[in-house]
Amino acid sequence: APVVVKKICCIGAGYVGGPTCAVIPNIQVTIVDLNKARIDAWNSDNLPIYEPGLDEVVKEARGRNLFFSTDVDKAIEEADLIFVSVNTPTKKSGIGAGFAADLNYLQLATRRIAEVSTSSKIVVEKSTVPCRTADAMRTILEANSKPGCTFDILSNPEFLAEGTAIADLFNPDRVLIGSLQTESGLSACGSLAAVYSNWVKKDQILTVGLWSSELSKLAANAMLAQRISSVNALSAICEATGANIDEVAYAVGKDTRVGPKFLKASVGFGGSCFQKDILNLVYLSESLHLPHVAKYWRAVVEMNEYQKDRFAHKVVETLFNTITGKKIAMLGWAFKKDTGDTRESPAISIANHFLSEKARITIYDPQVGEDQIWLDLTDYGAIPAEPIKPNVSIQKSAEDACKGAEAIVVCTEWDEFKTLDWEKIYANCPRPAFVFDGRLMLDRKKLQKIGFTVVTIGTGDRV
Ligand code: UDX
Ligand code: UDX
Ligand code: ADP
Description:
By secondary structure, this protein is of the alpha/beta class. The protein has helices spanning 17-22, 36-42, 54-61, 72-78, 104-116, 133-144, 165-170, 183-196, 210-241, 245-253, 274-287, 291-318, 346-356, 370-377, 398-402, 422-427, 444-450, and strands at 7-11, 28-32, 66-69, 81-84, 121-125, 151-155, 175-179, 205-209, 327-331, 360-364, 392-394, 407-410, 434-437, 453-456. It is an enzyme of class 1 (oxidoreductase).
C-alpha cells in the first residue's frame, strides 16, 4: 500500500512553491529557501509575492500546518515527500545558452536531498524541467544516498497561472502525476495522489508515465503561447485590413473545437514560463535531431518578438516618426494584471525601444516597485543606469504618469485603467493626445469622444 504522507518539505519559496504548498490542508508542510530575506517575508505580514487571495490562505495556515524556514536540511530530513520547486531559468552561457534550462539549482537541491536524508523519500519535481530530467535526478540521488534509503521520483508539474494562482490551486483543471511504471513508482504516485485527494476530485488526478508528465508541461505552455502568437499574427492582418481582432477571435472561439479562452490579442506574452519553456522545447527538439520541429516552435517566440517590436514601432510612426525628447506614459509594467511579477514582461522591451529612440518615459504600475523597474531596465545591472536615468521617471499613480504625456501606452491590463478620470487626463495632455491600447481593454469610443486619438492592437480604423 502507498506510504501515507505525514510531512512535506518544499524546496524553493517562490511563485510556485509558496502558493502551491499554502493550499495543502491537514498535512504539515515546511517550505524552505536559501534566501533568508524571502523566508522572513513569508513569515511577515508583507508576503514576498502579490497574488490575490494568497494573504488570507497563508494567514490561515501559517503556524498551524504551514511553516517557512531557512533550515533546508532539517526540513528534508523530517519529510516523507519533498517538492523541488527551485528556479530553472534559461541558461545565460555555455552549451545551449539562450535556450536550454539551467539545471544547476535543481541539481544542487537534489544533491542536498541525497546527502541529508537518513530515510526513504518521495522526491517530486515541480519546477518545469526538460524531458528526462528525472533520470538525472535519480542517478544523483542513488549515487549519493545512504544505505537503506531509497528515492522515488515523481513529476508533478504545476499549471497555475499568476494572478489566479489561488483559484487555480483550489480548483485545478487537472493534477498531473508522472511516475515510473514500477511497483514502487506506482506506489509513490498513489501517495502523492492521496495528498491531492484532500481537495481535488479523483477523476481530475491524472497519472501517467514520468516522461509524458515532463513533456506535457512543456507542451501545455507551448500550445497556450502558440494560441497567443496565432491571434497576434492575425491582429497584424486586422490592422492592415480594417478587420477587428476581438470580433475575429470571438467568431473563431465559438467553434467548440477551438474554444473561447486565451484568444486575447496583446502587446505580446510575457511571464517566466512561455518563452522559457518553448525555447526549452526548441533545444530538446534540436538535441533529438528534429530540426523541423524546432523550427516550428521557434516561430511562436519569433512572432512574439515581432508583436512587441511592431507595437513599439507603431507608437513611433504614429507620433510622426520621432519620439526623441517626447514624454511617453507607460501604464503597467507587470507581465499581466493581478501580479507584481515582471519576468519577460513586454513592457520592458517596449520601454527599451522608447529609450533607444531617446524618449522620456514615465512608468506606473500598481504592484511593481521602483527598485524592480530599475532592475528590469538595467537587466539586473548588466546595463548602466546613469545614461537612461534622466529619461525615466516612475510615478505613484496613473494620473501622475500621464501628466503632460504626448502618448499614453497601456502595456498591462490592470482593471483600474478602465476607470481612470480620462477627461482630467486629457485636460493635462498636449494636443494631439494619443492613447495606445496594447491590451484592447479601454473604451475606445469614449476616449475618442473625449478627444484622444486611440490606436488599438488589432483594429484597422484609426480615428
Ligand atoms: C502560464 C500558464 O497559463 C500556466 O498554466 C503555467 O503554469 C505557467 O505559465 P502565467 O505565465 O502565470 O501562466 O500567465 P498566463 O495567464 O498564461 O499569461 C501569460 C502571458 O500571456 C501574459 O503576458 C498574458 O498577458 C499573455 N496573454 C494571455 C495574452 O496576451 N493573451 C491571452 O489571451 C492570454
Ligand atoms: C474543415 C473544417 O473542420 C470545417 O469547419 C471547414 O468548414 C472545412 O474544413 P474538413 O476538411 O471536412 O473540415 O474536415 P476536418 O474534420 O476538419 O478534418 C480535416 C483534416 O484534419 C482531416 O484530414 C483530418 O483527418 C485531420 N485531423 C482532424 C487530424 O489529423 N487530427 C484532428 O484532431 C482533427
Ligand atoms: P518559480 O517561479 O519557479 O517559483 P522563483 O525564482 O520564484 O521560481 O523561486 C525559486 C526559489 O528557489 C528561489 O527563492 C530560490 O532562492 C530557491 N532556491 C534555489 N535553489 C535552492 C536550493 N538549493 N535550496 C533552497 N532553495 C533554493
